[in-house]
TrEMBL record:
Family annotation (SUPFAM superfamilies): ALDH-like
Name by which UniProt lists this protein: methylmalonate-semialdehyde dehydrogenase (CoA acylating)
Gene Ontology BP, a term: thymine catabolic process
Family classification: Belongs to the aldehyde dehydrogenase family.
PANTHER family to which the protein is assigned, alphabetical: MALONATE-SEMIALDEHYDE DEHYDROGENASE, METHYLMALONATE-SEMIALDEHYDE DEHYDROGENASE [ACYLATING], MITOCHONDRIAL
Keywords: NAD, Oxidoreductase
Protein's organism: Marinobacterium aestuarii
InterPro entries hit by this protein: Ald_DH/histidinol_DH, Ald_DH_C, Ald_DH_N, Aldehyde_DH_dom, MeMal-semiAld_DH
């Protein structure tokens, strides 16, 4: 019998009253593994109202108690790490190792939320004027909402609701309808950790449910991760409704390879960073920029990519799994054909990839293009598949100019043995996250995930100190006390017995 994914409202797992259900399919077989509801207007309103009611008491909860909830939660997540990863792998198609990484990166953010007491500290200055002191507090906003994508169904929800709730807010999560089972298990464990009923609500659906949250007067803040088009819609609609919004959008991440880099390190890192997870990562390397004589390494890169084989989630030899759905596969295949039609040289073509035992999977093999120019769609657009574009320039300055002309600014990396080249690159590049001899420079949670330009809309980023600023408001108090008001007068003496 097909599983019907519940809603989580007020601490209870509820079957939706909706008449609209979306099938959740195994991307390797197209088997329907669950049905996820499009929550009704009344159910979304109930989720927000329940969260608003819970906020009245949660905001008064001492910060140490909020930290202890996160300590219990991270412990439960660690105990159930492999179980969550198995659920994740089955519904996304990710390899088991990749799925475990997804879960662990989320756990690291929960660990960071355990430090909420020190992260929430305000500022104090004594005697800003004569006998006048000034100090600030951070206070929570209320009901925050999160809309998360399919590609990291554990990590990205854990970017959001633990930090928001640790800050004293309550939260409504709308996970991707394509893989809702993992977020629901995260929510179950949060309840098991002792979260009071109503702190976390989970609703399901699509654009209609998202728009209801964007217009809801009792939701002051929205967090989003997803595509550029949706991110722009979220940001425009949310801010038009006077909400605080952080919207993480698309990317076109470049790796620059200097001729003094260690060749084998470059090839090994570039293969994993480009086709790992099937390229379905906003921090995937999709453009390799070879400087000078480094261009001679492209044939060896092709050979290394050709050795990567996609496969089923539980195949230990699989390099990555299928794309999330048939539409995603068709989109990637369309870009591959556009690259060929535009005159790029497809030196490795994964269009006809077949995986034994899974003929209906959304498979695309590793694909490599050379002779690419900046106006081609395979360069300008985020393909979100295992497709790598190789470009050649003569100097580091040309590489920097190429990347800075690109509208995206999520991540980039430079491989070099030169400290001077690294210093120049990290200073001049207009990208939010830079790796030096690190292919995918995703920061650990005590820093923030800092995409720039068209990769991010908003002011405060995810996790780290910026997340605390996003999920709180600052209240500044200027205080003066008159000594004449001291009982007994200013010359009162205290006798010690």
């Amino acid at each position: 019998m097909t599983q019907h994914v519940p809603l989580l409202i007020g601490g209870e797992m509820l079957r939706s009253e909706t008449q609209q259900w979306i099938p959740v399919t195994d991307p390797a077989t197209q088997e329907v593994i669950a049905q996820v509801p499009c929550a009704t207007v009344e159910e979304v309103d109930l989720a927000v109202a329940t969260a608003k009611k819970a906020f009245e008491t949660w905001k008064e909860t001492p910060v140490s108690e909020r930290a202890r909830l996160m300590l219990r939660y991270q412990d439960l997540l660690k105990q159930h790490h492999d179980e969550i990863a198995t659920i994740l792998a089955k519904e996304t198609g990710k390899t088991f190792d990749d799925a475990k990484g997804d879960v662990w990166r989320g756990i690291e953010v929960v660990e960071h939320a355990c430090n909420i007491a020190s992260l929430s500290m305000g500022e104090t200055v004594e005697n800003v004027a004569r006998k006048i002191d000034c100090y600030s507090y951070t206070q929570p906003l209320g009901v925050c909402a999160g809309i998360t994508p399919f590609n990291f169904p554990a990590m990205i929800p854990l970017w959001m609701f633990p930090m928001a709730i640790a800050c004293g807010n309550t939260f409504v999560l709308k996970p991707s309808e394509q893989d809702p089972l993992t977020p629901m298990r995260l929510a179950e464990l949060f309840q098991e950790a002792g979260a009071p009923d109503g702190l976390l609500q989970v609703i399901h659906g699509g654009k209609e449910q998202v728009d209801q949250l964007l217009h809801h007067p009792d939701v002051p803040a929205i967090s989003f991760v997803g595509s550029v088009a949706v991110g722009e819609h979220i940001y425009r609609t949310g801010t038009a409704n006077m909400k605080r919004v952080q919207a993480f959008a698309g990317a076109k991440n470049h790796m620059v390879i200097m001729p003094d880099a260690q060749k084998q390190h470059v090839i090994n890192n570039l293969v994993g960073a480009s086709v790992g997870a099937g390229g379905q990562r906003c921090m995937a390397i999709s453009v390799a920029v070879f400087v000078g004589e480094a261009r001679n390494w492209i044939p060896e890169l092709r050979e290394a990519l050709a050795q990567v084989r996609p496969g089923l989630w539980n195949d230990p030899k699989a390099g990555y799994g299928p794309l999330i759905n048939p539409q995603a596969r068709e989109r990637v295949l369309r870009y591959i054909q556009e690259g060929k039609d535009a005159g790029a040289d497809c030196v490795l073509d994964g269009s006809d990839c077949v995986v034994e035992g899974a003929p209906d999977g959304n498979w695309v093999g590793p694909t490599l293009f050379t002779k690419v120019t900046p106006e081609m769609s395979i360069y300008t657009d985020e393909i979100f598949g295992p497709v790598l574009v190789a470009m050649e320039v003569d100097t580091l300055d040309e590489a920097i100019s190429l990347i800075n002309a690109n509208p995206y600014g999520n991540g980039t990396s430079l491989f070099t043995a030169s400290g001077a080249a690294a210093r120049k690159y990290q200073h001049e590049i207009q990208v939010g996250q830079v790796g030096i001899n690190v292919p995918v420079p995703v920061p650990l949670p005590f820093f923030s995930f800092t995409g720039w330009r068209k990769s991010f809309y908003g002011d405060q980023h995810a996790y780290g100190k910026q997340a605390v600023r996003f999920y709180t408001e600052t209240k500044t108090v200027t205080a003066r006390w008159f000594e004449d008001d001291i009982a007994g007068g200013p010359n009162m003496t205290i006798q010690l017995k």
